[in-house]
Write a structure and sequence with these properties.
Helix content is about 25%, strand content about 25%. A hairpin with a 6-residue loop joins strand 5 and strand 6. It is built from 6 helices and 17 strands. A 9-stranded antiparallel β-sheet has the order 1-2-3-14-10-17-8-7-4, covered by helices on one side. Strands 9-15-12-13 form a 4-stranded antiparallel β-sheet, with no helix packed on it. The protein has 2 domains: about 55 residues; about 200 residues, q2cbj1_9rhob like domain (Jelly Rolls), CATH 2.60.120. Helix 1 packs across helix 3 and helix 2 packs across helix 3. It starts with 9 loop residues before the first helix and ends in a 5-residue tail after the last strand. It binds pyridine-2,4-dicarboxylic acid (PD2) and zinc ion. Zinc ion (ZN) binds next to loops.
Length: about 290
């Protein structure tokens, strides 16, 4: 095929925009274009031109290279070098490890075995195939990148939920009201959660709507409700770091801007044997309504 024969038709333009708004990475769109006969150079130009025009149309320009979005305050536990933190309800949480970039802290015994069991029992009858946020609309969609079953609790909906929410708020020193409802996920063998950021991508068209409910996400606590027989680590591929899923333990991480420089790309590695159950608390900049 010659390059001169390849022009960006309105259909192609619509297709590129639809892929981008569905959250496809530009490199995957490029691969698909090459597979259907586009020469790489021409495909790169078409992709760049189309996405740039689209950003102009909707009034948002990408940040100039090297420019970061402004930072926000983030949740942060008071560690003071202690190996154990005592909370006001008397519950003790161990500090198993921490790192600065990405900001990650691993807690031991955030939940008791009885709390894990109760949370799984409350969630089990309400589990549905997980949805993730649809970047284009701000709604939710079933996503092949997340092959787990999940459900959301309302904030404060049961005494156990209130207790866990209060404990996390005190532990990471972030207002309970800024927390989203607790999410429970169950992964079966083979299920995984492919690497992603938990903040909402400012370049996606659905983000403005999502941000109306309390602004950006700035922190995550993933609590392990059981210990899977095999696999299921929470991974941070940017830094080659993995957290083993152990019942009652939790991994906390924060991100002060919606940007890769936080190095908080993370995923749930495939479960190879048994099930994996987690509860996730996401924290927003402001009150989550
Ligand atoms: O289950 C996990 O390990 C996991 C990994 C990545 C959970 C989440 N993200 C999440 O709930 O955001
Ligand atoms: Zn996540």
């Amino acid at each position: 095929m010659t390059t001169t024969a390849q022009t960006v038709t309105p259909e192609l333009r619509r297709w590129i925009i639809a892929q981008a708004e569905a959250g496809c990475r530009p490199e995957d769109v490029l691969t698909a274009m090459k597979a259907s006969g586009w020469e790489e150079d021409v495909a790169v130009d078409a992709l760049e031109q189309t996405l740039r025009q689209r950003l102009d149309e909707i009034g948002r320009r990408p940040l100039p290279a090297g420019e970061l979005p402004p930072p926000s305050a983030v949740p942060e536990p008071r560690l003071d070098g202690a190996s154990e933190l005592r909370l006001s309800d008397g519950h003790r949480v161990r500090v198993l490890g921490s790192m600065k970039l990405p900001r990650v802290v691993i807690f031991g015994g955030l939940l008791t075995d009885a709390e894990c069991d109760e949370l799984m029992a409350l969630a089990r009858p309400r589990l549905l195939r997980s949805e993730t946020v649809d970047n284009a609309t701000g709604g939710s969609e079933v996503n092949a990148a997340r092959t787990s079953d999940g459900m959301f609790f309302e904030r404060g909906e049961a005494p156990l939920i209130r207790r866990i929410e209060a404990r996390i708020a005190e532990l990471v020193r972030w207002p309970l009201e800024n927390g989203e409802g607790l999410q429970v996920l169950r992964y079966r063998p083979g299920a995984e959660y492919r690497p992603h950021h938990d903040y909402f991508d400012p370049a996606h068209s659905g983000t403005a709507r999502i941000l109306q409910r309390g602004g950006q996400r700035v922190g995550t606590v993933v609590m392990y409700l059981n210990t899977p027989e095999g696999g299921g680590a929470t991974t941070f591929p940017d830094v080659g770091f993995e957290v083993a899923p152990v019942r009652g333990n939790a991994v906390f991480f924060s991100y002060d801007r919606a940007h890769e420089s936080t190095r908080t790309l993370h995923g749930g590695a495939p479960v190879t044997a048994g099930e994996k159950w987690v509860a996730t608390k996401w924290m927003r900049e402001g009150v989550f309504v």
